[in-house]
Amino acid sequence: MILRLALASLWARALTVGMTILAIALSVGLFLGVEKVRTGAKDSFADTISGTHLIVGARSGSVQLLLYSVFRIGNATNNVSWESYQDVASREEVDWIVPISLGDSHRQFRVMGTTRAFFEHYKYRQGRSLAVQHGVVMDDLFDAVIGADVAETLGYAVGDPIIVAHGLASFTEHKDQPFRISGILAKTGTPVDRTVIVSLEAIEAIHVDWRNGAQVPGQSTSADEIRQMDLVPQAVTAALIGVKSPLQTFGLQRAINEYPEEPLLAILPGVALQELWGIVGVAETALRAVSAMVVITALIGMMATIFSSLNERRREMAIFRVMGARPRVIVTLLLLEAMLMAGIGAILGLLLVYLGLFIAQPIVDSAYGIWLPITPPGLREALIVLAVVVAGAIVSMIPAWRAYRLSLADGMTVKT
Amino acid sequence: MADPILSLGDVRFRWSGAAHFALDIAAFDVARGEKVLLLGESGSGKSTLLSLICGTILPQSGTVSVAGSDLSTMSSGSRDRFRAEHVGVIFQQFNLLPFGTVADNILLPLQFAPHRRARTKDAKATARTLCEKLGLPKSVFTAKAATLSVGQQQRVAVARALIGQPPLIMADEPTSALDAATQTAFLDLLFAQVEANDASLLMVSHDSRLAPQFDRVVEMEAIAKTPRAAA
């Protein structure tokens, strides 16, 4: 019955109590939302490449190799010679190998030379393959397949011509050899969305008239002439490798790292991703700290509300006291009230997050390629709710202590 | 007086902090079954006296005995429990928890007084009967206390003080918020129920017109010295 009276008392102050609960719900929602987005982003990040056992490039750092080969961030310091690439490719552990050739660009997007095997073996988000949304995978030497972001940003459709520029952010263009868009890929949420993919031979082809990074003056070979040429590349930037048995991964990695002809580096994508995430993790911690502080702020707001309610409730407390309630009962009532508000707020916040997830999941996926999984609340969520309730109780100790002092001092003499 | 329900002897009380106000009572008794009106102006220490009898405050010296037990020998927790068991209190006004129903309010003291609860066989039925006897319409029983008129609220407060038959009923100017006609009716009902319960009544007021209805009228000035008044 006392519990019912406590609830009735809360109900009588529905507006302020509701506001307080709303503030707690929003803050808990924010906290849990940030957690969801954080883990979702982390998973999406880790999902950028899957199914690839090793990435091979010129010797540099593992994070650097991962950044330029998978994320198209930064540049390769050196290339892998075609001979070395062939040596690695012919090793018996290698199940498949996909060469990558980078260095040119189209507008703000990178151009990547590769083989058709890329579409077969590049996997993201737990083994999903690339899908062509419009058109087909490149067929002709001067065909290009573009990522979803490229198509959307530049408004390209299948059949449109595009001109590749030499280098990055460059004004010298390979005008003599225009490409034609043969296919547009479906959105993946990976850097592939921002890549123009051409064949490895095409990369060679557009550089036929070029020596030492500049076009040979006056020389211009026509597309048809180029088609007749033998376009074996001299080097590739990196290669993705799948091994026949995962057990061979480390052996192959060591063999490549100790390759005597050329300094090469083979990395495990998962390990390099972890390393990279370790660097990004600082921002992640900051984000969590900020959202935790928002929760604390809401709880302090609740404390203020309870404090300000004490005066108008001195009568209520005096009645309880005169009926024989010990000051302890008054304190318990206040703590209970605070825990109830914090608990309801936290659970509402949880519901809010799920509601938000249901609405935002497809939007976030298509806009940012971040997949926010909707999983039933688990121990983690229960712990967060519990933590908020406990924090609410701790915070309300202060007004409860004041109520204790007031109810001792007032006795039954309050005349308000 | 043999076996008084209330007995004060050589009580001296001073509020800590308030150096000027103090209350000295040499002797004051209320017999069992007696209905006493304590008359005094505001500031004469009536409320302080009620707090002393309730045991929410303790005198610096002297004894306050309720139903034969000296309050000063008890811990504060047992005083709370003792008050819940033995004293029914009616305030001037705003007696009730406005957000609770009439039933909740009447039954509230039983929560803190196991003996009173045990004495009340069927608490809800008893509360209903009390309401009926106090002339409250049946419909108010489940209504929120805040929706009642002041007169009705005061009658609910009487029912709350009486439930479980505590031996001492204390009322602090319960009629001051009522108009003259309702006052008399209210007091008649209060007396009838106090008598029916074999309880004693100590009522505090500044209104001497109420005097004829009581067994005994005591002037506050006659029993208490308040040094502040003298100063």
Series of H and E elements of chain A: HHEHEHEEHEEEEHEEEHEEHEEHEHHHH
Helical run tally of chain A: 13
Q: Provide the low-confidence segments of chain A as ranges.
A: none
Instruction: Give the number of domains of chain A.
Output: 2
Overall number of strands of chain A? 16
Question: Helix-strand pattern of chain B, N to C?
Answer: EEEHEEHEHHHHEHEEHEH
Instruction: Count interface residues per chain for the largest interface.
Output: A-B, 26 and 32 residues
Averaging pLDDT over every residue of chain A, what do you get? Answer: 87
As residue ranges, the low-confidence spans of chain B are none
What is the terminal-to-terminal distance of chain B?
34 Å
- Categorize the overall geometry of chain B: globular
The helix content of chain A is 40-55%
What is the beta-strand fraction of chain B?
15-25%
Strand order of the largest sheet of chain B: 5-4-1-2-10
CATH class of chain B: Alpha Beta
Rg of chain A (CA only):
32 Å
Number of helices of chain B: 9
